[in-house]
């Protein structure tokens, strides 16, 4: 048995059970692709894919629990001991149409044929249950040398599926590798074929660059290759805001809004076009909404800060805190918290003269205190209900009720009124009297 160093032993033994059962039934079966590459590189392995000579119908017969994930491509997900493995029949891809994934696949009997259709030498390795490496294209050597090299002729590979060019840049960026000269030249020669690739496939690779350890390297390679120049993604001009973009790797990759917001701001994209742009890029709605919210919060807050730059600390407290509370209520606790953590990270790596950050650590600490002190963020958290307010006021209902509830929310959020029924009803009385006076 091969000792995998980068995976949980339970996952390995469940997968070995899959390999063994396939082999006992007379088929060939191997670990393949990313998991073998990551193990060879000493990187954490995430999914362990299996390739086999068994046809999908056979795989389904051999295992009790299967999901027919992509039968037409030969993929069955096998569930075993609470683990899931994609088991794909050895295949050859033919009939690539329009420079994207093949229209048809042909099942074959030899693992070598299957490895031949893969994109890069480091991704075209297989390993058997005993840990013997099958490495027909010298992927291990390329990993050692830190290079990305196509399997076979780079021009052919990129012509078949143009996404591979973005994948080359993704792997270069995430692993700190360099494409071989012939691979890079083929990228330049074939870059116009990107137009055929669905934006979601590009976005998935782009996200791996963005959330990886060195996004700037990927952005620079994308920019130099001009791969995305004609695609629906905007030109990545790294020069626009290099200071800001350089800080990308400092931010955590999760939640996505942190890096995504810095990216679009760093690229100098107009705020109004950001929601549409992220939608066009097919970023998940949740990420796009969070990002836009974070950027708007940042801009509105920065405006407030700049307008009050020269005031004393007490004046800042007095004049700025109400704005912070209003903004936090408008954009939500999550956005305010993310803004603070984004600013903390940016400040940690900055010198005092950084023009991008018109705030220092001491000031940020004050904002953090304001943020943690806000006890409520929604009208529903108030200890008084709309009908009780109505009764107390002795007035007929109307739109005024909604605005009064909002005012109550603000007063509690700002710490002016405690969140108890008695205090809130007193406040209602005071406000009603005030408006009637
Ligand atoms: P990751 O670690 O991000 O999952 P990966 O190499 O496993 O990287 P996947 O997209 O999961 O990438 O693909 C699994 C394997 O399938 C790859 O290692 C490669 O062998 C093959 N592969 C994936 N996409 C392509 C492609 N567009 N062209 C050729 N082979 C591909
Ligand atoms: Mg993978």
Structure overview:
There is one protein chain. The protein is α+β, with helices and mostly antiparallel strands. It has four domains: 9-139, Beta Polymerase, domain 2 (2-Layer Sandwich); 146-233, Hydrophobic Seed Protein, CATH 1.10.110.30; 242-374, no CATH class; 379-436, Serum Albumin, Chain A, Domain 1. The protein contains 20 helices and eleven strands. The strands form three sheets. It has a seven-stranded mixed sheet with strand order 3-4-5-2-1-8-9. A two-stranded antiparallel sheet has the order 6-7. It has a two-stranded parallel sheet with strand order 10-11. A hairpin with a 5-residue loop joins strand 6 (91-96) and strand 7 (102-107). Helix 6 (154-160) packs parallel to helix 8. It is elongated, with a radius of gyration of 28 Å. The model has no long low-confidence stretch (mean pLDDT 91). Bound molecules: adenosine-5'-triphosphate and magnesium ion. Adenosine-5'-triphosphate binds at residues 33-34, 118-119, 123-124, 161, 163-164, 208. Magnesium ion (MG) binds next to loops.
Question: In summary, what is this structure?
Answer:
Helices cover 53% and strands 11% of the residues. It contains 20 helices and eleven strands.
Helix-strand layout with pairing:
Elements lengths: L8 H16 L4 E4 L1 H8 L7 E4 L3 H7 L3 E5 L4 E6 L2 E7 L1 E6 L5 E6 L3 H6 L9 E2 L5 E2 L4 H7 L1 E2 L5 H7 L2 H13 L2 E2 L1 H10 L8 H12 L4 H11 L16 H5 L9 H11 L7 H7 L4 H23 L5 H19 L1 H16 L12 H13 L12 H8 L5 H15 L7 H16 L1
Helix pairs in contact: 6-8, 7-9, 7-10, 12-14, 13-14, 14-15, 14-16, 15-16, 15-17, 16-17, 18-20
């Amino acid at each position: 048995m091969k000792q995998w160093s980068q995976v949980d032993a339970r996952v390995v033994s469940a997968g070995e059970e899959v390999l063994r059962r396939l082999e006992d039934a007379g088929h060939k079966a191997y670990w393949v692709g990313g998991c073998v590459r990551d193990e060879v590189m000493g990187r954490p392995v995430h999914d362990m894919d299996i390739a086999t000579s068994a046809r999908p119908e056979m795989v389904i017969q051999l295992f009790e629990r299967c999901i027919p994930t992509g039968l037409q491509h030969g993929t069955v997900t096998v569930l075993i001991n609470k683990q899931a493995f994609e088991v794909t029949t050895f295949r050859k891809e033919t009939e690539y149409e329009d420079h994207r994934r093949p229209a048809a696949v042909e099942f074959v009997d030899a693992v070598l044929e299957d490895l031949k259709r893969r994109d890069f030498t480091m991704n075209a390795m297989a390993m058997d249950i005993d840990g013997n490496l099958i490495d027909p294209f010298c992927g291990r050597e390329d990993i050692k040398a830190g290079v990305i090299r196509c399997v076979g002729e780079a021009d052919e590979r990129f012509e078949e599926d143009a996404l591979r060019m973005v994948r080359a840049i993704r792997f270069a960026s995430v692993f700190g590798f360099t494409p071989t000269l012939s691979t890079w030249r083929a990228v330049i020669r074939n870059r116009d074929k990107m137009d055929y690739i669905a934006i979601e496939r590009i976005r998935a690779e782009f996200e791996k660059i963005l959330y990886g350890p060195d996004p700037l390297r990927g952005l620079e390679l994308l920019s130099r290759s001009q791969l995305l120049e004609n695609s629906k993604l905007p030109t990545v001009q790294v020069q626009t805001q290099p200071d800001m973009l350089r800080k990308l790797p400092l931010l955590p990759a999760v939640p996505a809004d942190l890096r995504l917001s810095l990216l679009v701001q760093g690229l100098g994209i107009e705020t109004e076009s950001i929601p549409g742009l992220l939608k066009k890029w097919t970023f998940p709605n949740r990420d796009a909404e969070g990002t836009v919210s974070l950027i708007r919060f940042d801009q509105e807050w920065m405006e407030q800060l700049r307008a009050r730059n020269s005031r004393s600390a007490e004046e800042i407290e007095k004049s700025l805190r109400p704005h912070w509370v209003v903004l936090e209520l408008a954009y939500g606790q999550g956005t305010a918290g993310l803004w603070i953590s984004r600013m903390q990270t940016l400040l940690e790596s900055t010198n005092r003269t950084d023009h991008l950050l018109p705030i220092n650590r001491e000031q940020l600490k004050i904002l953090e205190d304001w943020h943690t002190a806000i006890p409520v963020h929604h009208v529903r958290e108030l200890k008084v209900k709309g009908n009780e307010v109505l009764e107390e006021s002795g007035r007929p209902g109307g739109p005024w009720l909604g605005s009064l509830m909002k005012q109550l929310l603000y007063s509690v959020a700002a710490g002016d009124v405690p969140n108890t029924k008695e205090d809130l009803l007193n406040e209602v009385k005071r406000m009603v009297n005030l408006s009637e006076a």
